[in-house]
Write a structure and sequence with these properties.
Blueprint (H helix, E strand, L loop, with lengths): L1 H19 L1 H17 L11 H5 L1 H8 L1 H26 L16 H15 L1 H16 L4 H25 L10 H6 L9 H9 L1 H21 L7 H14 L1 H14 L10 H7 L1 H7 L1 H10 L2 H21 L7 H20 L6 H16 L9
Helix pairs in contact: 1-6, 4-5, 4-7, 5-8, 6-8, 7-8, 10-11, 11-12, 12-17, 12-18, 17-19
């Protein structure tokens, strides 16, 4: 039973992990091998020093505390990735048999099996660690070499312990997450449902959009350091903020088509539907809105926010065109972004606000409820 469980867990978790992350592991292996074996040095190097410089990166791991720290951080990230994969597989319905078969063994036997599974997953890291330790011992670096090996052994033991606790935990069916537990009893406006969807199931997309937004803001300010209060620069930054959230705009269209297709049966006018979905972006863009109001004047802030929401309404209306897919949507978005840039640079940025609203309303009015023109 013990050997059977060991083989089953290796087949499920070890083989599956390598299948899923084969590309990443091969890429890292090729990079390391290319660096260690084929890198050329600058200048004249004596023949007896060539081996040292070719293995300089490996030697640095066991001789330089800073390089060792980076390597241990990388090992920790690898352990986190492997642990996340194992726990995600344990949560799948097809793995529920493990909770009734594998857990019949003693905790000690289970722990040994999980240690073996985590060790197998760690083989690429351990191989390079043993290689670095061998090089380090040859050059007389003993303490850091042993420390790296002990740290990675600790990662394996901790990962195995977490897997042991998870595999022996009672299954909680349909456990609600923190957002549902907090706001499950709230009255939710239908036009704000997408916001709850973002914070419930699309948190990664939201975080990436925010990171991209702040990177674009910082980059524009870095390039134009002398024009921080220029109205043209501020409108350009606002257009960058909107473009950073186009994925959320596209996902909102998919969400509305999938879950809010009943809206035409309600007594909502087209104008209300057209403007009411902006409530989502009032919440989703709240960090950027607060930043604008705290750094610029009230009149300027209202102008920038009006421009942002006019651009959002235009991008949303574009999705009602014939079978608009993500590729065509992005092409049109970046084409409009370049058009915005031209208008802003020539001092016609404020004209874009009514122009965007008019075009967005025309597209929305002509294509809303047209089943032949709406596609996911």
């Amino acid at each position: 039973m013990f050997s059977l469980s060991n083989a089953a867990l290796r087949k499920i978790f070890v083989d599956g992990f390598y299948r899923m992350h084969a590309g990443m592991l091969v890429f890292i292996f090729v990079i390391l091998m290319s660096y260690c074996l084929f890198i050329n040095t600058l200048g004249t190097v004596l023949p007896d020093q060539i081996d040292f410089w070719q293995f300089f990166f490996t030697i640095s791991l066991v001789s330089n505390p800073l390089m060792m720290t980076f390597y241990l951080i990388g090992s920790s990230l690898y352990a986190y990735k492997s642990l996340k994969y194992v726990l995600s597989q344990l949560a799948l319905p097809q793995q529920e048999f493990l909770y009734y078969s594998f857990t019949s063994s003693t905790k000690k036997q289970q722990f040994v099996v999980w240690c073996a599974v985590q060790t197998c997953i760690f083989i690429p890291i351990l191989c390079y660690t043993l290689y670095a330790i061998t090089i380090g011992i040859v050059f007389g670096y003993y303490l850091i070499s042993i420390g790296i090996l002990l740290f990675q052994g600790l990662l394996i033991v901790l990962s195995a312990y977490i897997c042991l606790k998870e595999s022996n935990r009672l299954i909680e069916a349909n456990k609600p997450n923190w957002l549902i537990r907090i706001c499950g009893k709230w009255n939710k406006p239908v036009f704000l449902l997408y916001t709850f969807q973002v914070f419930n199931q699309s948190k990664l997309a939201y975080v990436l959009a925010k990171l991209l937004s702040w990177v674009l803001i910082s980059s524009v300010f870095l390039v134009f350091t002398d024009l921080k209060d220029n109205s043209r620069l501020l409108m350009l930054i606002t257009s960058c903020i909107v473009v950073a959230h186009v994925v959320l705009i596209y996902q909102e269209k998919i969400f509305n088509d999938r879950y809010l297709s009943f809206l035409p049966n309600f007594p909502f006018t087209k104008k209300k539907i057209f403007f009411s979905f902006c409530l989502n972006y009032l919440v989703l863009l709240l960090p950027e809105i607060c930043w604008i109001f705290t750094n610029f004047g009230v009149l300027t802030s209202f102008g920038l926010i009006a421009f942002a929401f006019s651009a959002i309404l235009l991008f949303r209306s574009l999705l009602l065109l014939n079978a608009m897919q993500i590729k065509g949507f992005l092409i049109r978005v970046f084409s409009l972004f370049l058009l915005f840039y031209v208008f802003i640079m020539f001092g016609f940025g404020l004209i874009l606000i009514p122009l965007n609203l008019i075009v967005a309303w025309i597209l929305f009015r002509r294509n809303y409820l047209n089943d032949n023109c709406i596609g996911i």
